[in-house]
């Protein structure tokens, strides 16, 4: 796998592609599927074998034909129109940039984007660039399955819940996943309504099961009528550890935006150490080394002055 050279010219091209993506995604209203593409390219990462991840391998037929990726060819073709205008940019960077822009143009948080990911290339020597089918989560399974999948990526419970908040956007299509409908009333707006609805449904049903009030039942049905909850969404309010975050994000949109931006950045950088971080680390080491030398010189000066003074007085 090769990494692009991230020089001034590459960075300039990224900014131009970002502008084109903003216009393209807004005009086509395709933020949800672009975000899903970015997630499905990145979400195959295995922290133990250091395989999969945001390397653009989803563009290969072998991978986009995986069952979990049904429908994503549409997003791959959308990205191709941007790639044609900005051929320098790798697919690995392009798909992640599209995900970041999708969140931004629908009103979500700004997510830091650093380019330079390694790009999967299909060669005769290396035909195993595509991960085996089955690395992405199965919506019909429960909390343990979600943990198995996300921990394999090196992500945490908090990341699982925050990232699931991306279902504030878009919808399920029966011909793609077998599920149908949107999670929220405004599926083109990135906000915390996914959590508000999860929280509402759960706390209302708890109250109803305690036979508190029948009006609640009607209110609950009105609020969530026709909206989707995958089994993997429901477990977020059933598992006590996940539930802590659902409650927080339902009450505090700023907390959700902050955590989402962090988790999304982690997802988009799985297996990739941004050069700026590496540079910052090197800089920090240099500064530390310089400080250590400074302290040693100062100490030597103090000790020498002390001995000089002692020798002078004893004379
Ligand atoms: C937690 C485990 C997850 C499961 C089981 C899951 C499952 C699904 C399913 C079944 C669909 C419907 C696909 C279709 O029929 O078109 C979907 C759509 C979507 N997912 Fe997830 N997902 C998960 C996590 C995520 C994450 C982490 C993100 C992004 C960070 C994400 C973003 C989306 C988006 C934006 C859509 C809407 C796509 C569209 O409207 O075309 N999902 N997901």
TrEMBL record:
- Cofactor(s) listed in the protein's UniProt record: heme b
The catalytic activity, as recorded, is: L-ascorbate + H2O2 = L-dehydroascorbate + 2 H2O
Q: What is the name of the protein in this document? A: L-ascorbate peroxidase
Keyword check for Transmembrane: yes
If you read the UniProt record, what top EC class would you report for this enzyme, in one word?
oxidoreductase
PROSITE patterns from the UniProt entry: PEROXIDASE_1, PEROXIDASE_2, PEROXIDASE_4
InterPro entries, alphabetically?
Ccp1-like, Haem_peroxidase, Haem_peroxidase_sf, Peroxidase_I, Peroxidases_AS, Peroxidases_heam-ligand_BS
Q: Which family does it belong to?
A: Belongs to the peroxidase family. Ascorbate peroxidase subfamily.
Enumerate the GO terms in the molecular function aspect. Answer: heme binding; L-ascorbate peroxidase activity; metal ion binding
């Amino acid at each position: 796998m090769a990494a692009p050279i991230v020089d001034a010219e590459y960075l300039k091209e990224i900014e131009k592609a970002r502008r084109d993506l903003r216009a393209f995604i807004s005009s086509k209203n395709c933020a949800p599927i672009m975000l899903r593409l970015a997630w499905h390219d990145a979400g195959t990462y295995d922290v133990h074998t250091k395989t999969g991840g945001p390397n653009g391998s989803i563009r290969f037929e072998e991978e986009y034909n995986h069952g979990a990726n049904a429908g994503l060819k549409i997003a791959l073709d959308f990205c191709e129109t941007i790639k044609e205008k900005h051929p320098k940019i790798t697919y690995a960077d392009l798909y992640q940039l599209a995900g970041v822009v999708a969140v931004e143009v629908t009103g979500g948080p700004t997510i830091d984007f650093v380019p330079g990911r390694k790009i999967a290339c299909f060669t005769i020597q290396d035909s195993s660039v595509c991960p085996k089918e089955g690395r992405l989560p199965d919506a019909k399974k429960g909390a343990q399955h979600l943990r198995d999948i996300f921990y394999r990526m090196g992500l945490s419970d908090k990341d699982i819940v925050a990232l699931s908040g991306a279902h504030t956007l878009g919808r399920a299509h029966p011909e793609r996943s077998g599920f149908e409908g949107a999670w929220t009333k405004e599926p083109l707006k990135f906000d915390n309504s996914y959590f508000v609805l999860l929280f509402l449904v759960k706390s209302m049903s708890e109250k109803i099961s305690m036979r508190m009030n029948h009006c609640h039942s009607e209110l609950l049905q009105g609020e969530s009528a026709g909206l989707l909850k995958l089994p993997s969404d429901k477990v977020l309010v059933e598992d006590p550890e996940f539930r802590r975050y659902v409650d927080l994000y339902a009450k505090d949109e700023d907390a959700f935006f902050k955590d989402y931006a962090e988790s999304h950045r982690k997802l988009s950088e799985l297996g990739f150490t941004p050069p700026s971080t590496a540079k910052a680390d090197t800089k920090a080491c240099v500064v530390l080394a310089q400080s250590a030398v400074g302290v040693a010189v100062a100490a030597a000066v103090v000790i020498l002055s002390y001995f000089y003074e002692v020798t002078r007085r004893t004379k």
